[in-house]
Queue: 4 jobs
Job 1
Amino acid sequence: MSLSTQESDENAQYVLYARLDNAKTMANILKAVHFKDTAIIFASENGLKVTVEDCKCVQANAFLQSSLFQEFVIKEEQVTFKINLTVLLECLNIFGASSIPGATTALKMCHEGYGTPLTLLLEENGVLTDCSLKTLEPDETLDFNFLSTNVVNKIITKSECLKAAFSELDLSSDILEILMSPDEPYFRLSTFGNAGSIHSEFPKESDLVESFQCNKTQANRYKISLLKPSVKALMQSTRVSVRTDNRGFLSMQYMIKTEDGQVCFVEFFCCPDEELENDEYS
Amino acid sequence: MRFRGKIIDIGCIQHFTRVVTTISKLVKSCTLRITTDTLYFILSERMVTGGTGIWCQVSQNHFFDEFNLDGVSAEANEIYLEVNPDLMVRALRTAQNAKSVKIKLTKKHMPCLTLEVELPTLAAHSRLVTHDVPVNVIPRRLWDEFEEPELPDFDVTLFMPCVKILRNVVDRMKNLSNFLTISANNSGEMNFGVSTDIATIKTHFKDVGHPNWRETSDRDPKEFADARIDIRKLAQFLVGQQLSSVKIICNLVHEHLAHFFIVHDDVSLQYSLPVVNS
């Protein structure tokens, strides 16, 4: 591959250097968190973490572990910058978003350090594209302080389970209520819209449910507008873990299989809409 | 002033439809000039309205089996009409399996190009579908606005690279910027790039073919000519043109003009986009 010929001395000045044979892998994962124009990228020796936030209430993190890349070199402990995700995705898909069999886009990504642009070099069938994207001062990201020790309820299921439920969400309802309980109805999604309330219940014995660890009945409400972006990730995923902690914060982790069989994770955190005062809906 | 023509061959009907469709994707309204041997679709925008130019030439005898024309006068045996090519396409769309298509200039409530489409049936009688496409007759004193543009001396002449790849690239770039810069040299290097506040993106094509249709100038083959053009107009052309997927010639006049040229035996299309300065 022509991209890999002269890299040895060339990458000397870079703090971050990554090479990927199929740029679509990265594009697909990033697409899952693409609900805002800008993202903050944290690079470390583990790989890239791409964070997108909205309304100070929801945060999405996409993890591109270093093993996903054919080559991943980082010379500082951590490199952080903000970038326009929309433009980055357009660049990654410059040769077309649909995959033509036999044609893959190879990617080389470099960054020279604070204040310098992120450069991408893409190649497909001998045609080269180079992109230079301005990096911006990173914003402070939210810390949801979501500790696994505080997790009250946790369910891991195959994604089919939730895909149907989420794709048919009643959007006239502002909120989605997630109920998790050690007793019936175990796991229930509810919306309260103009045309009435809809409850989708999932039995815990279902083949699709892989792990069910609920300790306490908990019903939390979340703004649908905040959860809606996670549907992109859900649709690509094969497995999903839904967790809530003692404050009602929601964590959803999606497992996404890439085209070449690797596994990536995308997680969403969302804060609850408000405290449920009484049991009027349960 | 009279015009009537008849196309019988289904291949010709479809090819003619492709020509008109291509024009309709580029422009809402254009001039149709009819002479005894050629049909021309012409657009010559003034610089203040964008400066786009289209010159499409269709040899009449490759398409029409009957062709009768009585022009404005004996010494000016031509007709100039203002037409909406999209309306013509809609009329021609019903003709994709027709036995024949007749095109004639008629006077109903207003001047019209009437397309009579004869469709096959199982019975002995055939069905006739008639479309009237309203047109404006352009008076003779305005004709000299539609003269064939003179080709300038081009700095660089190359074939366009693979349209399929280029179409994707231009489509992506279209989302990022309104203007695209083509830069190319006579040794087969061709770059397409956009540049905005947040990103600079450039796609490089190497070893792009070279038509031998004109003497190469004494210009340094390594020297690039640049043309910054309206990206939407380029995208329209790449997506909308149905005449050729391989041999599109791209001519550049440095910081002045990008000119695209498709040549077939019976049809030729020139599309020129002026450079937009930043």
Note: Helices of chain A lie at 7-10, 23-31, 85-92, 160-167, 224-227, 230-236.
Job 2
Amino acid sequence: MQLESMYQEIILDHYRNPHGRGLREPFEAEVHHVNPTCGDEVTLRVHLEGETIADVSYEGMGCSISQASVSAMYDLVIGKTVPQALETGDHFVTLMQSKGDAAVAEKLEDELEDAVAFAGVSKYPARIKCALMSWMALKDASARALSITETTPAGGKA
Amino acid sequence: MTVTVSRPGAGAQQQPLPLDVEAIRADFPILSRTVRDGKRLVYLDSGATSQKPRSVLDAERWFYENVNAAPHRGAHQLAEEATGAYEAARATIAGFIGARTDEVVFTRNSTEAINLVAYALSNAATAKEDAFRRYAVGQGDEIVVTEMEHHANLVPWQQLCERTGATLRWLGLTDDGRLDLADLGTVVNERTKLVAVTQQSNILGTINPLGEIVARAREVGALVLVDGAQSVPHQPVDVTELGADFLVFSGHKMLGPTGVGVLWGRYEVLDALPPFLTGGSMIEVVRMEGSTFMPPPQRFEAGVPMTAQVIGLAAAVEYLQRLGMTNVQAHEEAITAYALERLAEISGVTVIGPPDTVARGGAISFTVEGVHPHDVGQVLDDEGIAVRVGHHCAWPVVRRYGVPATTRATFYVHTGYDDVDALADGIRKAQRFFGVVPAEAAPPAGPTREA
């Protein structure tokens, strides 16, 4: 039985009771990402206060992995600066590339909190993109949000 | 306390199967391997690509070990034998679809065959030679497709229209997964240059009434291209009965190797088309100022061809001919009928497509309420069952039926009732795993697995 190694209880909890779901105002950038091989979609908004991520709101449809991933990401990035959040995203990518290597997961446990439960997904190459879709959307949206706040004096960035 | 639970499979009919599944499975080396910690491979993804019998693998190996040379060039014995083997394979494959040998063009797959026609039609508009302009597509012309086409029979036509200024029109679908022909008379009209339609839907399983469509196209003088990627492998197809101008299919979906597909075209039409890919092999005379081209089929086969794959495909055709395509179709129909019954027993499962075997092939797409198709596929995979999930390269179809994606099971000559039972049990397991049905209310396992 390998199913449980992918579908950790934490993942199923996030899937059934997603954190932060729904599109909210205000926001500086909104992106729409799709997974063209399977049709999964996410619409994601980022609201910055200075460089800090004040809110990430989203709507999407997709499998349990993609939906749980965006929920776990929400918990991880609120209150972080954009560079900090993107660094966490890089750690998540590392986890996804770990091919189930427990040592990698252990090292990243503190950094990734609930999201470390996705370690089992890294053994299934076809599902990695499901877990990564929301992180790619966040990277895209926060870059856009930053470029907007940087050109707007009211954004607070010098 | 009374719990009424019907035994799965109790109502489903197991007719004797036309094909000897155990004997056929023994011909496919891959079917003896196990997956996911020792599970028997239940391969229900032949619609994506089929597995290969030993005779196909042997044919390719035979070619490389004994004959390998570039056909249609070279002055040596190997080149002569390679040319002979390549052209003999063309004759075998042509015979399989009732075609003249010089009407069979080898391409990489169905996708390339469709692109070949689409590019030839736009190249015709700018051709220097009058003879190549007969089927030119341009502004004011219309191309007709259907809403159930695979992306391979949709996107090339969208692109042709963008290149030429022609307009793309399409026939819609009914709620039960069939073509809506109510508008046929207006959608296909005197402006229509070509109608491109699938014979068997890769996602719905629907077998389309080509006769009616071909008749309408003939009335208005439009060409007809039939996408046979899902029909030629699974039912008898004879181009003389089809009445179309083009038929395309892929070798890898009919027990043959990857990298080889077929464009069949009526000779008269092929002969009036300019080339798509150009280069060696397809030329007649080359001067620095310009070149002339060979007649079909060579005009459309630039470069050294996929010789070993063509020979492998001929071996696949011979394998199918030994089974008999009428038997292959009857076998899949029996399996499909059984699968539709087994799926209908599972509450929360909805089949997207025709609910019975009338004018229907063996592609069964379905949704499971409360479980995303990817997750269904993952649970099935854990049981050793290979299915496809997603939009199946027919995104407009899943959109039409209001679902984000489906799980799809497809059948072939080695599929037995035991494979369908495994599928039904796997779906129930997915429902239990994701808590859609309570674990204790789950019905007992299905009947004894026999092929």
Note: Chain B has a mean pLDDT of 94.
Job 3
Amino acid sequence: MIEVKHLVKSYGKLRVLDDISLTINQGERVAIIGPSGSGKSTFLRCLNCMEDPTSGEIIFKGVNIADMHVDINIHRRHIGMVFQQFNLFNNKTVIENIMLAPVYVGNQARRKAIRHNLYVRLANIFSKNKKPFLKVESKADIKNTAKENAHTLLKRIGLDEKADVYPSTLSGGQKQRIAIVRSLAMNPDVMLFDEPTSALDPEMVGEVLNVIKELADDGMTMVIVTHEMAFAREVATRLLFLDGGHVLEDTDPKEFFDHPKTDRAKEFLSKVL
Amino acid sequence: MGNFSVKVEKFWEIFYEYRGYTRVVTGLKNTLIIAVLGLLIGIVIGTLIATVRVTPKYKTLPKVLNGICSFYVGLFRGTPVVVQLLVTYYVMLPLMGINIPPLNVCVLVFGLNSGAYVSEIMRGGIMSVDPGQLEAGRAVGLSFPVTMLKIVVPQAVKNILPTLGNEFITLIKETSVVSFVGAADLYVAFNYFGTNSYEFMVPYLVMALIYIVLVMLIALGVRLMERSLRKSDRS
């Protein structure tokens, strides 16, 4: 699904990612672990080009999205992303947060359809075989569909009663669950999690991890940068150990935790476990 | 001070019996028109410039636009508004062969001038918004302009509202120089009182009072707006 080819990312002289090549397949749940400064967050952020790679290719569904000529926004809609700091839109209520992108994309498609129909109408005057019109959804319909969808998602995480409050009144765990749902509202093909539980109080970590686990059970492809070793071991189907911008180990999680191959991994595990 | 009542009487005579109040009303109207329209134009221009200046600059177009905007801001912040008025009205417009009334020229110049200041205020406001907000917008597939418009700028505006109110107050007071190009504002109205009665004290005191009341009303309005915008904050 995502194919990374010779990915390099440098900040000035500092080479954060050094020639990484790998493929993430449909249905895989990849956990990325490693010491801080190892480039794991940068790697994740390169997957949807939040950081533009210095060189190399990111092939998502057959398109190289690292190419500057590609309209990245269209592809990002299929890649959900969850941040360490939640980043809910502070000026929108919870439900508006979730509806914003779907409604915008819906309206954009609507404008496109209207333009297309105008063109077809013109073309039909001159040609014998009349082309059909595209269906144009009304703005209210787009909004209602998005709203229903948002409420369904909110019910799924048990926060439907919070639909009309502003994010500043929520706890960290609630914010992160809503941030996850906001990404899901776009029906992404893959979800990227950038240390989703690192900024949470310990007692809220569980509720967020449960939501991610449920997603995993539904067969969502996901890439998770995490410090929760137990969670990585339980949920992930594949584990990447990064250090110094290189993928040192790319194995099965249980294999990694029980029999780490490299010395760096052994040293890392001895400190965190 | 013994003849203070005489001065007030003279003022009242011109103000009421010679219908001087119509001049005051016109002056007040013009002052407000210049300040309000000037601020509106300033906000539009300022927002555009600020957006250009915070846009990432790895392509040529943003780079060029950024250069133009820097020049614009430098030009309008580097010269007094009186000079801008005089140059526009007596040099630029005649050279271009355009003939428009002084009031419109004033609105235009004050708009362009406050655009330069608002752009810097706006840029500060945009930079005060958590960069994560922009990232989150981009991550769900919204383009940079859309994210700016729907997420970042509304939050920035909330942060800069007090400063923007300040700009409006400055603008109201600065309009007192428009008589340089022959527009009739509050100063012109009260000056008429003075030159017709040879008594300047009362007219100028009343003028000062009107400015103070105007500014206080604006300050109150800004405070009310701020309160209504704070609804998304923790109460």
Note: Chain B touches chain A at residues 130, 132-133, 135-143, 146, 150-151, 154-155, 158, 231-234 (CB under 8 Å).
Job 4
Amino acid sequence: MSKIGLIISREYLTRVKKKTFILMSFLGPLLIVGFVLLTSYLSQENKEKYEILVVDESHLFDSILRNSDKYHLQWAPNGKNYDEVQEIFKKDDQLDLLVYLPLNLIKTNSMTAKCLYKEIPSTGVQKHLSSIINEAIELYRVNFNNIDISTYKSIKTKINLDVVDIENKENRNIQRKAFVGIALAFFIYGFIFLYSVQVMRGVIEEKTNRIVEVIISSVSSFELMMAKIIGVGLVGITQFIIWAIVTMIMSITIFPLIIKDKYNPSLQMNSDELVNNSFKIDSNNEAIQFIINEVQWSYLIVFFILFFLGGYLLYSGLMAAIGAAVDEEADTQQFLLPLTIPMVFAILMASKVIDDPSSSLAFWLSEIPFTSPIIMIVRIAMGIGDSSVEMWEIILSLFLLTITFIGTSWLSGRIYRKGILSYGKKASYSDLFKWLKN
Amino acid sequence: MFSKKIIEIKGLHKSYSDHKALDNINLSIDESKIFGLLGPNGAGKTTLIRIINQILEPDQGEVKFAGENLSRKHIHSIGYLPEERGLYKKMKVGEQVLYLAQLKGLSKKDAKQKLSHWFEKLGAENWWNKKVEDLSKGMAQKIQFITTVLHEPKVLILDEPLSGLDPVNSLLIKNEILELKKKNTSIILSTHDMNSVEEICEEVAIIHNSKKILQGSINEIKKNYEENLWTILYSGNQMNFTNAVWGGWELKNHTNLNQNINKAEIKLLNDFTINKFIKGIVDHVEILEINKKIPSINDVFIKATTDE
């Protein structure tokens, strides 16, 4: 085996043999799935039942406002005005919400209903209340205008807008695909940080152990640096592959068991939305189907790997240089900040890019190598073509990323070579520039 | 007879941004000898060693290895034990020595064979599966020594190889160095331990303020630094001793050891010989012992690096 191969294999094997690696390989997907389940559990309504006191000044709603077990409506006692009812509401611990329907609400569209709370209701509850009030008003007006209820139902319909690219009709509803891109962008972000920090730690370890001088008397310092970067990168790829496989196995075996009830479409059909005003909870399955069918997976996977590698090589080279410049990890903060900012900025900008994936902001962020691995993967997930990102933009971005990481590796190599043998002095930015020039 | 040169250095310069580390260094090192590379801290020794190891590149000048221009192919012919040395703490001793041996070009099989020999020799047989962090400093030093010599390099560069070792292990390593020399290994020893230099080196060079200020065999150098100092142990009166010979010498030191027994340290000036001096005093005092004071390498080092 060549010496570089030897170093790569040491870097790789010492890491994959570690108990923490093995543990994280299996725990990672569990944690991710657990986190997803936990957030979906926490975002569920934790209240079983809402007791809602309704002040209906027009007395027209009591027969048409839909009552249900979960949202149980009670009517305010006759003869009490709104202020008095508020006092009742305040005193009665059983009551959760007070809904006030003013006198002219049913006649004009300019009035607003009010909902008073003790503990703020979730947006889901608010939407429900607003939908049953709207529904009641509509039913009243249908009745008032002598329209047949079945005629009304046939008129009342739910239309989804299919947003299609005229040049390439495959490109439909691209914003909905961005979810995949965001997930992958987070992976890239996390993996780049996780593994480039490992490179930095490895360099610091070799430096503080004082073994580095022996190694670089056998191979050049640049070879050592690159071999370390490649070795750790392979650990990252291995971890990713294990995660993918474990997640796949879990999604086939355990996942359906856990979420069977929650995602069972037949149960969701029973949800209390009669007259729906938008596609909502029941679209879960539809969304999953859409993502599976519409996302260009082959392109996405290839570019995910390329952008992950490009980003990793770019950042880990710089991290190696930082590791060489310091004596202990605590001294790395001042150098890490400038590297963290572009990545965090890219993650923050991702939602703007989804809003308008062909904007110039999206273009530049996906071409600048320090943000491109994150932003480009979001755009690619939304589809390759006129609507989001064109192939030439991806190729240009990869080209710029490659050139930049070659450049930064060269610069890092110079800092690394000097830094690795300088002990005891806390390096400053001016030292780094000095090492670069020398 | 001229001995073959293993390393020849000509006109070597190396500067860092803020200072000059080596200034026109010319040095030649004989094959199969132990060469002491001496100098105060910061003189430039480590830079010179790193250049020979191709860790650093010189700004100017040339280095020849066995008559050829120094290049990457010579890496396997050099064994280097740096002053700042260590091992991967979490790695097992066996894995680590195999790794380092392979980096020096040995095959795994060869390395294993040679390692079992060395482990036995230095009493490290039971350490193979230990983690380095569980070894004592002395044990780790032995492992480092083994990894340095395992690939049987032609040139061995040892920077403070004995520091941190107890006297028993220090002797053990010293003997190994002498044995390697017998097997025709050329050894460059950089150290501040002048006793060791005196014990095992045949030739030394002193580097001071980035320049080579001295090179030669131990005996030659000592001779050059001799000051014609003598110590005389005698029985008799001090006045008789000092007045016996007029001119040509000076008394550097005088101690009364016991009643009539005295020890005098004298320096002979110009061409005045010890025979003339003895002739002068022999009728006045009884001479018990005469010794010529030969400077130690320590004396030479101090004189050479402070005389400016």
Note: The CA atoms of residues 119 and 126 of chain B lie 9 Å apart.
